[in-house]
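#struct-help
A.M.: can someone run this one for me? Single chain, 397 residues.
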Amino acid sequence: MWRTHETQFWLRGEQPEKPVCFDESAGLWHVYGYPEVQAALADPATFSSDLLRITPEHRRPRAEGKDVSLDGMITLMDPPQHTKLRKLVTAAFAPRAVASLEPQIAALTNELLDEAGTERLELVTDLAFPLPVIVIADILGVPREDRDLFQKWVAGMFERNNQPSQLEQSEERRQEVQKHTDSMLQFRAYIAEHAAERRKKPREDLLTTLVVAEIDGKPLTDDQVVNFAFPLLIAGHLNTTMLLGNTVLCLDAFPEVQDRVRADRSIIPAVIEESMRFLTPFAALSRATTREVELGGEKIPADQMLMVWLATANRDPRVFPNPDTFDPSRGSSAHVAFGWGIHFCLGALLGRVEGRVVLNILLDRYPSLRTIPDEPPEFLAAALLTGLRKLPLRLSR
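D.P.: on it. Structure tokens below:
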């Protein structure tokens, strides 16, 4: 239907042969099935997020010949440290806090659309990228005007063409790791500068919360503050950018659904959930086994890397009948697009609210949201991301 990444077989109606399998060429295990993905993500004691314990030397981020400190990187943490760190910021993403942002989200959406004009809209550039990045930048306390820098760094970190491998040591892979590291270091330096300023002049923002926070009676180190803050800024906008673009694209591809939504706005949340299932933004998460374990009928040894595929789990026919059909009437948010277990996306509620507000405004303002035949959608050139780089739209019939 669309020109998505060549490795994303699930978007072509293909199913994996087995729910769990070993990939000899990559030196890792793939977990594809829905119950198997849930089981892996729900058991951090066996399927650890601390990937550094088994990451080969050639894949570790390094600068000036030294390992880059990832202390405080919540995505690489297991309990109990993960639990303690996550608690520091949960209040900022709680239902009451997110609900208070709705007027700001609506006003910002209208402002961005006013600037875009009335005849056509490039959804990603004009709205789907700037809106969530401004919202999360304001929450964290960094200048929203720097969003172009964020976009450049995120592209350097995530837009890799090939799926992960534990074994490949090609020049292409080396350059890929270096590009990722360079972008990460620039992003970390940016956050560190703002964190240092907060230590001198605290504000009412999330970065100040981290700077003044303590765990077990000790303040967070500079590395911990930076490594915790910059994934929040990344995930806080990237997932929602893809959510917005993918959902509008689905409404174009399935005009009967768009007609139903226009007639009954109450189904917008269901449309968003089905969009997340149908076009899962982050295709996979990585885990490492701490012991031998059986999963999906396979015995996996200790100290093995796993790719846990959210995208294929969301198209598992054992859970989602007719998985290649876009059907908001499924009436379920059982998908795992926001993850599962202790690492469930902190910003899931914020993303859902942003999606609901934006879709309502788009439908209010424009009688039609249709793609332009000679300007097809362009997807990100990234194996592990399913999201749009460009989505030109015609705003009238």
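A.M.: thanks! The chain has one domain: 9-394.
D.P.: also worth noting: The first strand starts at residue 20 and ends at 23.
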